[in-house]
Amino acid sequence: WRILRPGLLNGKEVFCVHHSLGQAGRYLAIAGLAVVMGLSYELFVFPNAFAPAGINGFATIIQYLFHVSIGYLSLIINLPLILLAWRKLDADFARKSLLFVLVFSGVTLGLGKLDLLSSIAYDSGSSQILGPVAAGVISGAVYGLVIRLGGSTGGTDIVAAWVHKLHPEASLVWVIFGLNASVAVLSFFVYGYQFEPVILCLIYCYLSSSISDTILKGGKSAMKFEVVTRQPEELSRQLMQQLRHGVTVLQAEGMYSETPRSLLICVVNRHQVVRFQEILARCGMSEIYIVNPYECFL
Known about the structure:
alpha+beta; five-stranded antiparallel beta sheet; 57% helix; single chain; 16% strand; 7 strands
């Protein structure tokens, strides 16, 4: 595995990791994921009268209102953004994003005209939640895998990458939240003044975000602890022996008492947090101060 370039997931910086697949293999994988996304829309999104997250959510609403295929709308929206990515970001990133958009648009246009999946498309019937659940899981998996392969699904992904390059300190969390919230609110008015499409959109957003976040982190989520203590040697020894994690020690000083302290920094796997707390307790909690832990991934 090798780290290639920073990307964004819901406004947070992540790293795109490429497997030892050849370049042709990565392009084929992205094309296959675009086919899966197109099938998901035809099977689970369109038959169940709700709009998914992001730019495609707005495109789905336009398709519902004016009967203009999302395949055309995706091309109209994404081609200028991909040109921007080509000129301002990275040519390989732009090519992979273009491939995904072209295949996704082609699949949705072809399936829509041929009407091949109407007999097997999932119509919610008595259970409206299952369609958005399936679509959200598939979308999250596709999104996470495409990012790991060095591309994007277009739309806000490209805008986020461009803004992040210009202003690395900027947070896009509220921009993405506002976009998804707008789709959810519009769903109420578009789909017959009902709350069900709004709830289905929110379910889709949550599942898609959670699944893609898990894939990008690779299942190696951990907690970073900072401990202020007077017993750095004993605590460090137990942490290294029992948890098999390294410990970084920095010298510190209490400004009020002007007494020397040691600041221990340790990254612990989530399943080891309880054992970590037990070790702290054995070392005497009266002399140990725990700073709020930070979630990270390895």
